Please model this.
Amino acid sequence: MARAPLLQLSSISLTFGGNPVFDDLSLTVQPGDRIALVGRNGSGKSTLMKVMAGLAEPDRGLRTVPPGVTVGYMEQEPDLTRFATLGDFAASALPEGQDYRLAVVAEGLKFDPSTPVATASGGERRRAALAKLLAEAPELMLLDEPTNHLDIQAIEWLERELSETRTAFVLISHDRAFLRALSKATLWIDRGEVRRREAGFEGFEDWRETVWAEEDEARHKLDRKIKAEAKWAVEGISARRKRNMGRVRALQALRADRAAQIRRQGTAAFALESGPTSGKKVIEAQGLTKAYGDKAIVKGFSLRVLRGDRVAFVGPNGVGKTTLLKMLTGEVQPDAGTVTLGTSLEIAVFDQTRTRLDLDASLWDNLTVDPLMRVSGASDQVMVRGTPKHVVAYLKDFLFDEAQARAPVRSLSGGERARLLLAKLMAQPSNLLILDEPTNDLDVETLDLLQDILGDYDGTVLVVSHDRDFIDRIATSTVAMEGGGRAQAYPGGWSDYAAQRPAVEADAPKSGGRPATAVAAKPETAAKPAGLSFTEKKRLDDLPALIERLEAEIGKLGALLEDPALFTREPVKFRKATEALTERQRSLEAAESEWLNLAERA
Model:
């Protein structure tokens, strides 16, 4: 016997500010569903989740929840005014005598229930909201960016909990690894339409590209039909007095259909321009030691960062990752040890607290008042990598519309605030980027673009992130901070570190900490092996240059194919570029595999 759905939305329509968010939307959530809810920042994901939770009232339509079914929603900004501690809030809906459920969740999330509400940070408040939802264990959980402000260990704990639960859930997250591990169905919001696919996030991007390709083909066919009918109308009218009015009306209907189609929003025009080339040695840290009271940040930590390196810093919340970054750039002085910075450094910083944004000021003022971006004597121009540009035009590059320019930053979503901060960051030339939690709240497509930009960036990148997939995609080395002053550098990204970690932990001393060594060599700096033939040695030396060339060609082809009008405007060029991109990607995969095979044999 089929079970009744836990939640059903029927013919939901909702409009904000004259713009339809959803129109005639219907969907159901069944027992056991594990759904990834995806879409661009501003597409309406959080709004849809609030409608599902019963917290937002649609203009039309019906929300149905069977009697006895409980739906829980993780609040982004919970109201804590009635509570003394975060624990009081998180346990407020638990039956008497079941506080132990909160204790179990709090341990896994590294959440301290005794934290006073008055001193709690935004991240602690969000963890309290997540802990409250998990402890209550409703039949349906609605989770909006639950991994934000969690460290990787807490994310992995949450991933295990959700993978083992029988509770249905709908999940919004920018964390690809998290979505891939947990989802079994995908809801995709795109221009007010919600599509459902009975498969997890793993194949979402391929599905999305297929849908868009079919849409482009249908639009292309419609354009050709309109052109043919318009030609008939002109020739027919001039050739005879009596016209086929039905055919003319059909042409008008075709044009109306074409005008009603909503164009896909383009990608943000992210661009990073390197400043003057820095010296080959960017940072040389020797024997760094730092402590605050009894809390050790690092003990005897040494690290060498060379031009072009991408170094990721990982570890539990509060272990001191941001402090270490500030020591490496000279902002914080170590208790012992030395830091030597390279020559000609121009540093740009993306801070996790978004302190460079004035929440009460408008987007316009945030750009034009900043002395680093202000054009002398102009109130409507910003300086973008040395060139004046109108503030609205620059905001449009980052997918903000003109109506948002004068709105306060406080009205933006978390992802939009991150995008605005990236706009400020990318306006200035730099050769050393410091990115402290840049991935929080960004949608998957913007993350893709950011990763591509960082891949093409000529400078050096130091990044703190809890996004495992992001680290794997960009990092050439990973510094793991494990508490107690222990810090160690490993070659590669998160997966490489995780693979090496068990052996390292088994060999690690029981007390004190082993200082981190220099970042492991990348392919282009690997020493020539002695166990290979002369031809193989030569091939191993040549492969890094080939890999670099293929990556550059893939980047250029990808940029070309990002133009949504290319298929319609130049279909032959689109086809050739697609084929070339596929061929280059295969060649790159083969070259990387060959390099790894030769390096392992060496």
Summary: Confidence is low (pLDDT under 50) at residues 238-243, 260-264, 504-530. Residues 204-239 form the longest helix (36 residues). The CA atoms of residues 431 and 459 lie 4 Å apart.
